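Request: How about a record?
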Amino acid sequence: MATYDVLYLGGVKVATPAENGITRSVNKTWSENSGRTSAGKAVGTIKYIKKKLEITWGKLSASELKKIEDVANDKDKPFKEVKYREVDGKMQTITCYFGDSVAQIYRYQDGKAQVTGYKISAIEQ
């Protein structure tokens, strides 16, 4: 089985997410005139469509986690390019900001956390 580049955050190749580790949602924002008529029919126009990636990793080394968090937690440059493999197999690039992250710490060894799970969301600008 061939291996493929899967994910770049801010131009940095990061660890491959866990199996089933990327959930992509497509989110629509409707115009102000959207809603329902008195007959219950939906009306309106879509202003834009944006993507959101929920990304989950399994076990990460301290250096792998640092690489991800250095990009995702850059308060001076909160918007980053995220390049990922789309469902059609092609690489796609979107500009995102990052939501809150969650790290599952298994234990500490030699003063460093051993992370067995990490999640973050990338929301298209």
